[in-house]
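4.2 Preliminary Data

To establish feasibility before requesting continued support, the project team ran the inverse folding procedure on a target of 198 residues. The structure was first converted into the token representation described in Section 3, and no sequence information of any kind was made available to the design step. The complete token record follows.
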């Protein structure tokens, strides 16, 4: 039940991520910098963050694996999540080539890992951290793409957690419905970096 109750929170997180990316694009548009200055600025921001915490570099695939394997403390997860959100905003806002699909999975895994840590602090031990990290990947992805079936199946395929599909599917549907109420457009409907978001 707690795992399913996690879904609406993931939906809100997915919508918040969409608004965060829109804000980043607005800020870069308002700077009105000629090309290639926005790309240079975005690269400098990501580079500076990566020098501080190398885990920020790249699309987040290695960070996802470390979270699923439970190798990071919740403090490290929270720090890298905050820096990763800044890096993704700098990349997306500047119009640099690259997607947000894997970074979204990273955000979801971190979100799930932090929820697991919070539940453990409250004395709940009903599910291991890796389960929540994987569930976070699926539900936050559903919340940003508004494609619950795709999100559930893709994360199950990526992690081999087919036995959790009966939890993934309803949780992803709930996360999608909540996210759609808060942010009707999916991540695929966001404005191009050179356009003022609506």
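Position-by-position output of the design step:
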């Amino acid at each position: 039940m707690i795992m399913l109750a996690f879904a609406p929170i993931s939906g809100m997180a997915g919508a918040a991520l969409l608004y965060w990316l829109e804000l980043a694009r607005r800020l870069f548009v308002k700077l009105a910098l000629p090309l290639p200055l926005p790309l240079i600025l975005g690269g400098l921001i990501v580079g500076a963050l990566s020098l501080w915490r190398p885990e920020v570099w790249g699309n987040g695939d290695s960070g996802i694996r470390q979270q699923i394997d439970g190798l990071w403390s919740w403090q490290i997860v929270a720090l890298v999540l905050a820096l990763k959100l800044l890096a993704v905003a700098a990349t997306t806002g500047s119009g640099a080539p690259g997607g947000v699909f894997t970074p979204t999975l990273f955000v979801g895994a971190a979100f799930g890992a932090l929820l697991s840590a919070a539940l453990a602090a409250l004395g709940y031990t009903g599910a291991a951290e890796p389960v929540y990290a994987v569930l976070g990947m699926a539900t936050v992805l559903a919340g940003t793409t508004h494609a619950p079936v795709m999100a559930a199946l893709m994360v199950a395929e990526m992690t081999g957690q087919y036995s959790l599909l009966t939890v993934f599917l309803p949780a992803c549907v709930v996360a999608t419905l909540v996210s759609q109420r808060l942010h009707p457009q999916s991540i695929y409907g966001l404005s191009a970096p050179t356009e003022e978001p609506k």
